[in-house]
Amino acid sequence: MASQRVRSSLLKFRGNISRRTYFTIFIGALTLLGGVWFLVSSVATVPQEFFPSPERVASTGVKMLQSREFLEDILASAARIGFAFLISALLAIPIGLLMSSFKFVEAMVEPLVDFIRYVPVPALIPIFIIWGGIGEESKFLVLFFGTFFQLVLLIMDDANNVPQLHFDLARTLGASTPQLIRDVLVPYLLPQTYDRLRVTLGWCWTYLIIAELIAVERGIGHTIKEAQRFSAADQMFVCFIVLGIIGLVTDYAAKLAHSRLFPYAVKSAR
Amino acid sequence: MSLQVSVEEKSFRNKEDLSNVLSDVSFMVRPSSIIGVFGPSGCGKSTLLRIIAGLDTNYRGSVKLNGKPVTHPTRNIGLTVQAHISYDWLTVAGNITFGLRYAPERNGTNWFNRVTGKVESKNATEEAKRLASIVGLSTADLKKYPEEMSGGMKQRMAFARALLPRPEVLLLDEPFSSLDFESRQALQDVVLRVRDELGISFICVSHDPEEVLYLADEVFVLGGSPAKIVNRTNPDLPVVDKRYTQEFQLAKKELSQWLNQLKQLSTEKDRSPLDSPLAK
């Protein structure tokens, strides 16, 4: 009876499932993936250098995580992302809000943003190297260009979708234009902006690897490149898994914090 | 208090076409009075309220409050609308006292409070409790978030929020139309009580004949294309249980006939509403 109920709730369109069922399925999917990996690596005749087994990746992973160097690589990558993403968000949020609030700002900024947005970031790497050399500056530019121009438009679109009546009613209560931005626009957008930041932070990790292909001495991208030189696929797999875990943990932590920070947004979404 | 409304022409540009929405709509609002503006949906009632509120200044004519032209929204003319607009990040108490941060007397507070919009919590709590009791919300409701409230409760909250600056005129745009019968009647009685106790005047826009007849001292029927006042009635009805009197029912029947007539005319645009047999 209970299993029948679980089965019907699984197939219900946009239906809810219990937290326990959710995590059972989640762990099951991971186990299945690991099982397929184990089977393929043990049955196939592919050399371990190209397609390492889970045991080999696990033992390499333990060794790498015990070394100070790999931890420094992770920290170097995280620091690059942290700095570039912070600057990108600090500029994109106010500019996006101003673009939505004042048509002249939109007219000034949007064509430029749209133009640059469609130029693939990897195509810009040579010019970033000319401008910023092979130091941290060029990596910063890759990460910044990869996120800023997307984020600014997302913020503007979200701001444009705030119902006009919210502003009209505040104006009849005496709000001036700066007060409308401070008291209506910003708090209305906070939960959505938080979500936008969470998603674009994921993109930032994608651009990180591209950024770290430019001569670097530290970083996860650098470790992957070095592993390629020595055909050490097991080391690459460890890097992929670490990247995935960092993404998963930050995303889940951000989701958890979202419901604490914006309880009203959770209630509205129900 | 005196509010003089005179909208000679209001039109909207739709691509190449210029459509005239309102024409020659003039009336006067006296202190502590309730004006009912009645007409079919989409006839321009809400546009008229936006003009009076100072939210739309792109029209020919004038709106004068105490002799001064209304050129922008002011705390002296409040507004509540049909959609339950709430500032969801604030509690009900925060919603009700939302306008407190813009009170002119706050100019004397310190710069930090002015920059952040922070209000004295003791003052805000007292105001929230006072207004909540007027509109029939409990102290426990004040701690809730708007999403936890029913439509009727949200509308009470919106009404309390509009009352906070003690406006001289409060504009009600189909305020109770989405509510159930009991909530609607209860809120209509709140409007009458606020008028009597605080001396606020109201302009109530509605397509519900019973609502305007119950609330208003004077009812304007708005209709046609462009919309103009096609009938003015002064329902001098007994106050106690007036909904159940014969005069009330007759007046309601007449307004309903107007509504049907105007709806019919909007589909036959070539006929003028002034040709209506009811207008003669």
CATH class of the largest domain in chain A: Mainly Alpha
Instruction: Report the span from N to C terminus of chain A.
Output: 27 Å
CATH architecture of the largest domain in chain B: 3-Layer(aba) Sandwich
- N-to-C span of chain B: 34 Å
Could you spell the SSE succession of chain B in H and E letters? EEEHEEEHHHHEHEHEEH
What is the share of helical residues of chain A? over 70%
Q: Tell me the CATH superfamily of the largest domain in chain B.
A: P-loop containing nucleotide triphosphate hydrolases
Descriptive account of the structure:
The complex is a heterodimer of chains A (270) and B (280). Chain A has 270 residues and is mainly α. Chain A has two domains: 2-43; 54-269, MetI-like (MetI-like fold). Chain A is built from twelve helices and no strands. Chain A has helices at 2-10, 19-43, 54-66, 68-101, 103-117, 121-132, 136-160, 164-172, 177-211, 220-229, 233-261, 263-269. The two termini of chain A are 27 Å apart. Chain B has 280 residues and is of the alpha/beta class. Chain B folds into two domains: 3-76 and 167-279, P-loop containing nucleotide triphosphate hydrolases (Rossmann fold), CATH 3.40.50; 89-151 and 160-165, no CATH class. In chain B, 34% of the residues lie in helices and 23% in strands. Chain B has eight helices and ten strands. In chain B, helix 4 packs across helix 5 (151-163) and helix 7 (209-215) crosses helix 8 (246-267). Chain B is globular, with a radius of gyration of 20 Å. At the A-B interface, helix 8, helix 9 and helix 12 of A face strand 6 of B.
Brief descriptors of the model:
heterodimer; A: 270 residues; mainly alpha; MetI-like fold; 2 domains; 83% helix; flat; B: 280 residues; six-stranded mixed β-sheet; four-stranded antiparallel β-sheet; 34% helix; disordered C terminus
Describe the secondary-structure layout:
The complex is a heterodimer of chains A (270) and B (280).
Chain A (H helix, E strand, L loop, with lengths): L1 H9 L8 H25 L10 H13 L1 H34 L1 H15 L3 H12 L3 H25 L3 H9 L4 H35 L8 H10 L3 H29 L1 H7 L1
Chain B lengths: L2 E12 L2 E13 L4 E5 L6 H8 L7 E6 L2 E2 L7 E4 L11 H5 L14 H6 L4 H15 L15 H13 L5 E5 L7 H18 L2 E6 L2 H7 L2 E6 L4 E6 L12 H22 L13
Parallel strand pairs in B: 3-8, 3-9, 6-7, 7-8
Antiparallel strand pairs in B: 1-2, 1-4, 4-5, 9-10
Helix pairs in contact in B: 4-5, 7-8
